[in-house]
Amino acid sequence: MTRLAETLLDALALGSVYALVALGFTVVFKASGVMNFAHGSVLLLGGWVVAATHGAVGFPLAVLLGAAAAAAASGLLHLLTARGLRGAGAHAATILTIGADLALLTALGRAIGADYLATGDPWGSAVVRIGGVHVVEARLAGIAVSVALIGAVFAAFRWTRWGLAMRAASADEEAAALMGVRLGRMRLTAWCTAGALAAVAAVFLAAFPSPGLDRSTGQLALAAFPAAVLGGLDSAAGALVGSLAIGLAGALAAGYQDELGAFGEGLPGIAPYLVMVAVLLVRPSGLLGSKEAVRV
Amino acid sequence: MSPPERSSTLTVENLHVAYGRAVRALRGVSLDLPAGRITAVLGANGAGKSTLLRAVSGTLGLHRGAVTAGSVAVDGRPLTEDPARAVRAGVVQVPEGRRVFADLTVEENLRAGELGRGRSGAATRREARERVFALLPVLAERRRQRAGLMSGGEQQMLAIGRALMADPCVLLLDEPSLGLAPRMVRQIGAIVQEINRQGTSVLLVEQNTAMALSVAHRALVLENGVVRLEGTAAELAAGDEVRRLYLGAAEEDGPATGGRPPVRELRRWTA
After folding, report:
1. Average pLDDT over every residue of A183-203
2. Residue among B19, B90, B25 at smallest CA distance from B57
3. Which terminus of chain A has fewer Cβ atoms in its 10 Å neighbourhood, N or C?
């Protein structure tokens, strides 16, 4: 029973951090129709900046710097894909992000080396006991921060001019442009927001019980990709639901790995994809994704 | 009575537009929309009507088109190919096929209409909204409803109301009667006239020639990207050519009375 409770809490923690990343995928896709495969290495860049600067400026400021760096990198990537491939369409831009991912990953790999880097987070390896359940403090913090940030993004979608412009443009780009929405600016802010969220996610992906930030942290974030897809790529709420489902699948696979014997080995890694495939078989456009509009 | 809106003169001079550098959609089109008037642009499918509107509203780029020569100006100030600037200059387009944001509520659609005018005071916004609701009461009744759930006519009204939220001095309408029942077409025509009476200049692109000529002051007929005919609405309505080419098939109520369906229509069925 305790073990189940711990596993579920792990699932929630994992899911909420994935949600930060998945929301980034979704926001970028909604804004410009591009699947940003460089999102993982943007995340890694954010984490690396936190690791490199926390000694000098302290953890909170380092997180801000990391978020700013990741936002800038993501925005730059957008300018590169949008301007460099003017008129080539979203598919070409999507492929360009794969190239950008490789380039950024190589550069960061060199900078990070073979070590695990500490991000200087204040939670360390502290564990609290709630009832009979042991919970890692960093995971509780991850849940709290993710909920706050995701809430802020959703509130912005709902109540700000930026959010309205985003929703209008993702529904009908030309109609939004005719209302005076500056599509370029709106897309740029979407990419920057996605980058900043990813940097925060990097901190929690590197926090205890993970040994720290290393080259594979970016790949870890790729688990958020199936989360976004199974939720329905163009639905922010879907990204949340998808992330929780992926978090649950990952945590269950990890928590009961031993019982699964040979089959369980490596299962935590592929569980997100198994869940995604299972969902897409039943709902091809994802849990909450909009179906391709067909008008007769 | 509602306060008079600002009104402007729209001048299009010798406009050439090409798509993908190959298809020449407009070849030297000129038109004058005097302040406070309605000018109708008529013509068959593919004549260049929508292209003309895109050139004015700055959305050619979204269709891989570009102005290759000529100019568009509002009150003498040239418009660049930037839709956001056109909206700021007071030139606002209601797109063909309504294109309301289906998942957004009526209220949110109207708020989206304000996005282009920059940050305006709450009082200005409320005023604009009240004017839209006075003109189009159905929007006030449905304000919390999702736009996609409304009828075609109501969506057209929402599309017009959304554009009015930007406080236009020149309103561009792209086939507002498309796909609507005759009664609704008449209602939309009356709304266009009322908007114009309140002071907004209107450029009305229509295939429904009868409706367009009944509300417009002046009209021109586009054919293959050039202006074929031009004159006052009354002149064109009385002229043989327009009646033969367009009015015969465009009687407002039901089938044309006494007129044979035009050959063009027939060919579509027999081909």
Report:
1. 95
2. B90
3. C
pLDDT tens digit string along A251-279? 888 888 777 767 667 787 788 888 888 88
Q: Which residues of B touch A164 (CB under 8 A)?
A: 108, 111-112, 115
Using the predicted structure, report yes or no on whether residue B182 has a pLDDT greater than 70: yes
Residue B37 at interface with chain A, using a CB cutoff of 8 Å: no
Residue of A nearest to B119 (CA): A161
For A95-114, give the DSSP string: HHHHHHHHHHHHHHHHHHTT
Among the partner-chain residues A165, A172, A290, the one whose CB lies closest to the CB of B115 is A165
A278-295 pLDDT, tens digit each: 888 988 888 888 765 443
pTM score of the predicted model:
0.86
Question: Number of folded domains in chain A?
Answer: 1
Q: CA nearest A158 in B: which residue?
A: B108
Decide if B168 touches A, using CB distance below 8 A: no
Is residue A150 assigned to a domain?
A: yes
Would you kindly state where each structural domain of chain B is located, as residue ranges? 10-101+167-270
Per-residue pLDDT, B101:
95
Q: Which CATH fold topology does B10-101+167-270 show?
A: Rossmann fold (3.40.50)
Rg (CA), chain B: 18
For A123, the token pair is: 């939670």
Contact of A96 with A81, CB cutoff 8 Å: yes
